[in-house]
Amino acid sequence: MNKKIILILGIMAVILISGCVQKQCEIASDCVSKTCFEVKCKDHNCVYSPISNCCGNKICEVGETYSECVADCPNCDDKNNCTVDEYDYHEEKCMNKLTTDVVCCGNERCEKGEIYENCVKDCPNCDDKNDCSHDYYEYHKQECINDPIIPCCGNEICDEDAETFSSCSEDCPNCDDNNKLTSDNFNYAVQVCENIVTHYFIDDFEEGTGSWVMSGDGEWSTTIENGNTVLKLGHNQANLQEEWNNYAFKFRFKRIEGSMHANFRHSSTKEEWNRYFVGVSGNGVNSLRKQVGDDFQTLAQIKSAFDDNWHTLEIRCYEDVVNVYFDDTLLNKYRDTENPLLSGKVGIEIHTGGEQITPEFLIDNVEIKAISEEDIISP
Questions:
Q1: Distance, CA of 28 to CA of 42 (rounded, Å)
Q2: Residue 237: enclosing H or E segment and its boundaries?
């Protein structure tokens, strides 16, 4: 077969084969459309090229949001008003960042302007149920503060200069021990009652004369003077039986007639009678004297006149020093350097003073007080 014939047969075969291949398109619209792909008809073939930022390509791309492309982008709203909700295109996930530059209830931080009552989500309840504390939230420390309120009745502390048993029995005890011989006080420093003995004896004769031993030939009784029960003594001695050493012997008196000896540091036996005594007559308080057995000594002459009203006599004796007060004024201070009498009883002796009279004194408010060296004035 010659070459010409072979060439003609080859051309016919190519034409035959070409006629058997199906064309895909003549133009782009002949091609099937695909979401997020650009289609072209090239050489009668459909050519598809991906389109960037296309909703539906299952990629949430920059510029796309959930509201604009539900198919590609998730809903990043966490329903928390205190977060900034965004989609991180690089990380390909939602980001929900708490706001820190504005006050927002729900951002897990109790901020100024927020309290437990208006934002339970962020702020704790700082009320400790104690009326004696000031409860508040410290925003800088992010913690509750419960500062004690002082004074405050109910804080289990008896507050000085503010509370007493009468004003706050919840905190302060009743320190009254029902003993008239003690001074009842509350020690705020150690929070305890103190019942300090101030007196060894007190008598206002309202309950009679049972504490006294009476002797003498005169009459004695209790009587009413200006609404008070007082002791009325005639030619008698009224003595207490207990002995003390350092004390103050104080009482009120009213002279009706006669004279009086106020005995102190008094002791007696069958053999002798020892005592100090202050003399009182119509001329006033007149002397401080001492008796040891049958020996009488005038230790000091005192001049102090008085009228027929009530007056107060007080004798303080500490160690070997004696002070005599009349109506709270110091009349005499004396130191006994020769065999001082250092302890003994007290008593009141009413006598005629050597006159033909019926003596009578009224006595009230007798006190035997405990004293220290600070209560005495040395000569």
A1: 8
A2: strand 236-239
Query: pTM (2 decimals)?
Result: 0.64
Token readout for 297 is 């000594």
Residue corresponding to tokens 């051309």: 11
Distances (CA, A) of 377 to 54, 77, 263, 333, 342: 112, 92, 20, 7, 17
CATH of domain 202-375: 2.60.120.560
Quick: pLDDT tens for 220-269: 999 999 999 999 999 999 999 999 999 999 999 999 999 999 999 999 88
Delimit the CATH 2.60.120.560 region(s) of the chain: 202-375
DSSP letter at 375 equals: G
Residue 145 pLDDT level (bands cut at 50, 70, 90): very high
**Distance in angstroms (rounded) separating the CA atoms of residues 45 and 28:** 9
Task: Find all residues with CB under 8 Å of 76, minimum gap 6, and list them.
Answer: 66, 85, 86, 87, 94, 95, 96
Mean pLDDT of the 124-132 span:
93
What is the per-residue DSSP string for 264-294?
EEEEE-SS-EEEEEEEEETTEEEEEEEEETT
Q: Which of 214, 211, 248, 250 is nearest to 232 (CA)?
A: 214
Mean pLDDT of 122-148: 94
Q: How far is CA 140 from CA 83, 112, 116, 361, 370, in A?
A: 22, 9, 16, 80, 60
